[in-house]
Amino acid sequence: MLIDTHCHIDQFPSPEDVVRECEESALRVVAVTNLPSHYALAADRLRGHPLVSAALGIHPLAAIEGIRELAAFKRMAPHAGFIGEIGLDFSPKGEASKSLQERVFEEVLRAIANRPRFITLHSRGADIAVLDALSRHQIRGAVLHWFTGTSMDLERVIHEGHFVSLNAAMLSSASGKKIMAALPKESVLVESDGPFATIKGRKSHPRDVAEVYSALAIQWNISFDVVVEMVANNFNRITKLITPS
Description:
The longest helix has 16 residues, at about 225-240. About 45% of the residues are buried. Helix 9 (about 210-220) crosses helix 10 (about 225-240). This protein has about 240 residues and is an alpha/beta fold. It has 10 helices and 10 strands.
């Protein structure tokens, strides 16, 4: 079974079609959301779809809306085993809301630090700040989605027991290839970041994770099936710790 650990299914024109296609392909997906109100809708609609799990999120670039929904996040958090997309964005897009993002992120981590969860994080331009916050709240085994940090930052990610999820768009960039080559097998997960990543001029889809699995098979000089097993083992190391609320 292939696994997509970070996909915005609710942002596709027809989310129901994407869910159906994932189930027909036996594709396991973590369906991240940008706000608690989005999560509430997704969680309701995904009941009865065991291969697609809704994740409770407040995207850093939605911090203005997120601050208004913090109470809802805290109310839902005890019942959510999957968290994302959360984090910080200190790129030019996020500069104006930096202090608000930090406030929201701190409150979010405080709300989810009490037990293991699957956590997928945004850290563009803010890798050290994100890692510092995870350390402060003693959160380990989180997933850095579409990681773009330095080699030193990556060493810290690995040392502190976190994971990095690779997507097909990263395979076409020098920095993405460098990260893939540097990652130990036990720290790798795979994502599509659909529909926001662009693959060969089109919006990405969960099925595009197959391209990443193939690239890893070449990188590691092993079979596709063995890569599938290794990534599944990494995913299961996190999810087996999730306890019912």
